[in-house]
Amino acid sequence: MSEFKVVGQSVPKADALDKVIGRAKFAADISFPGMLYAKALRSPVAHGILQHIDYSAAAALPGVAAVLTGKDVPGANNFGIIIKDEPVIVKNGEKIRKIGDTLALVAAENEAIAEQALALIKVDIEELTPVLCPIAAMQPDAPKIYDKGNVLAVRKIVKGDTEAGFRDSAVVVQQQYKTQMVEHAYIEPEAGIALFDGDVVTMWVSTQNPHYDAKEVARNLNIGLNKVRVIQAATGGGFGGKLDVSVQVHLAMLAVVTRRPVRMVYSRTESIKNSVKRHPYTITMKTGADANGRLTAFECTIIGDTGAYASYGPGTLTRSAVHATGPYEIPNVKITAYTVYTNNPQAGAMRGFGVPQVAFAHEAQMDMLAEKVGISPLEIRLLNALRPGSLTATGQYLEQSVGIVSTLEAAAAKVREIKLERRGGRL
Amino acid sequence: MKKRGVGMGCMWYGVGNTGLPNPAGAHVDILDDGTVLVLTGCADIGQGSDTALAQIAAEEIGVRYEDVRVVSADTGVTPDAGATSASRQTYISGNAVRSAARAAKQLILETAAEMLGVSQEEIIAGDRLLKVRAASGKSQAFTDCQSECRVGLGLDSGSDTREVSIAEVIAKCRMKGKLTLGHGWYNPDTTGLDAETGQGRPYATYAFATQVAEVEVDEDTGEVTVLRVVAAHDVGRAINPRNVEGQIEGGCAIGMGYALMEEIKLQEGNVLNCNFATYLLPTSLDVPEIYPLIVEDPEKTGPFGAKGVGEPALIPTAAAIANAVYDAVGVRITDLPITPDKILAKLKEKQNKGA
Questions:
Q1: pLDDT average, residue stretch A322-349
Q2: Structural domain boundaries of chain B?
Q3: Eight-state DSSP code of residue B110
């Protein structure tokens, strides 16, 4: 008999029925009388300066309710969860840092008119050399994406003495690993709908963090946070990609200017082109062990391409650094993680937050060491796994609920039961 | 020729933001009829937080799951619960909801204690009832079991435990002009990281996992098929085991796409494959047999021992698949994704070295 009555029960998911029968209301399902449709004009170049924008023909097009450019942003004109470096709309004379930067917004009676209006806007952009590789971006002579330089953050972790640790190692493996940029591919693209009643801006939006969204709307509209109400509509997945602002500030501005309900729904292509991505990494890892396979020293350098804007970049690289050893106790550790700007699509939070990349690397290292020492993959992991009483790379003392050994044992038991056979010997 | 291989991947994952404050708040209102309203800023994006938070509130107050309604993620109504990220909502919002539920329950317990003529410590809550704890010498489980057996035989429960329903207690509270509202918040116990050494306590707790993948590699085409994945996850406590299994299975699917298929192709900063005809994801036909294993090493600061599973589910999958590919054909691919081209190139390289 469980000590709990409700916890531990597989009760039906609260939202399951509505989603299965199609009753759940996603933002694109919500509409109001007199609603306008919003579209954004986006930069076709990765690095440049917006010299001039002429939207007179678009504004004159019948059915267009509003055209907004950078000068129309009433507040800060920047957003970002960690660093406010991304413009709501790029202003004349200011920098474009990626393909997809917003140059203008249109609200119109229907989507076709909105698209037509976008085509009538003329932009003059002075192109700059784009920086596309994070390693090149780190060189002193690289073109600067930001005045302060292209290296956004450096996170260091140092514990013990790795030189001594490697000196005492019987085996050492060193390898460079690379991981790719990937897309979240949530089933529902970004969408929202906003209203302004003359006092409060209310919006329904697909989001992972409505309270953060409200703060960015308030700052950029220059209104009180209590005058913004963000309601999460049913959300078709996020995986970290809906932690950043997409349609929120744009919709709020258009609703306030037009005094009409405004809806904005990304196409799949728009979503993939403009949303954040998983960071591509270059990881160099060196791991040492004694003759029995006990880990002695670990060094790791990580370079993450965070793209044009910070988003969750520095947080991602910090998490990578903290987790780079894997769930193992190593006495001597030296880790450096660089978050680097480029003119690529910005990378941000994505399920795993910088840890899938380093896990790919540290787990290859463990297998290579096991092979050199002549023990099995399970044995080397059991030997080095964190336990209650272990110290992590950041010097954190782990007191309790350290279940890595239990998961190794549970997995190994299942492997025996269903007869998974390792070609190279025992698991 | 097709060859099979097996590989292992492990991971750990700190729950919550790294070395930064990241609190969550919640409000709980126990209504006139004994049903419960939970207000939380936590956005349910399909992962099941509305469900888990309802279970946590129901357990703490002593009502049934269906008695609780969660209103979430509306800044005009709900308190800030921070981001649905960092696998933090079960642990952090779970603690916030539990704390709010406890505060509201405290008001009920005060009144129930008066009604039952005992101290609050002697009252236990469950299944919409507040009961006086069994007398010493008899365990609660024994008393409950005895009552259940009697009811099963068509007799009255025969229990000597005195009890009142939560609805009765609420009625009494209202007669006294007492509302049963609770507010709670939680911020995990962390420190910042030292700028030079990175030393500190970045997370209050960590989730752990081990996954083992079995693959089949076609040496002629380089194609990798994932056959089976065993996924053992220490989640502290599974609030809803089926939802935890769902997270694990979904994670393995995403991890498999990461290992073998998915890659954004860029040209001068422009995404070339920006639709699902050219950006390849695993489909249901690609997903292997998955054996989710829930390991519970309860976290003493977690709500009923819970930690988190959202992100851990996918973290070791690519690592396990890469190690399995090496076991199958003896080549180690060190850049993701592990495409047929890369495998064939490495196999050729290996063959040339051997010749």
A1: 98
A2: 2-15+205-354, 26-183
A3: H
Name residues 148-187 of chain B within 8 A of A (Cβ).
none
Question: Of B122, B168, B262, B311, which one is the catalytic site residue?
Answer: B311
Reported ipTM: the value is: 0.98
Nearest to A305 by CA among A179, A129, A143, A127: A179
Looking at beta carbons, which residues of chain B come within 8 Å of A1? 141
Which are the contacts of B88, defined by CB distance < 8 A and separation ≥ 6?
B15, B16, B17, B22, B24, B82, B188, B308
Residues of B in contact with A355 (CB under 8 A): 11, 13, 311, 315
Domains present along chain A, CATH in parentheses: 34-128+185-268 (3.90.1170.50), 135-182+277-417 (3.30.365.10)
Give the pLDDT confidence of A259-309 residue by residue, as tens digits: 999 999 999 999 999 999 999 999 999 999 999 999 999 999 999 999 999
Mean pLDDT of B103-117: 97
* Class of the CATH domain delimited by B26-183: alpha beta
State the Cα–Cα distance between residues A105 and A252, nearest whole angstrom.
12
Cα A197 to its chain centre, rounded Å, is 33
CATH 3.30.365.10 assigned to domain B2-15+205-354? The reply is yes
β-strands B224-234, B206-218 pairing: antiparallel
Q: Who contacts B98 (Cβ-Cβ below 8 Å, separation ≥6)?
A: B56, B57, B60, B184, B303, B304
Asked if B196's CB is within 8 angstroms of A158's CB, the reply is yes
Active site residue B311: yes
Residue pLDDT, tens place only, A378-412 = 999 999 999 999 999 999 999 999 999 999 999 99
Q: Which among A209, A363, A401 has the least Cβ separation from residue B307?
A: A401
Please indicate if any CB of chain A lies within 8 Å of the CB of B325.
no
Q: Decide: A181 and B266 in contact? Cβ < 8 Å.
A: yes
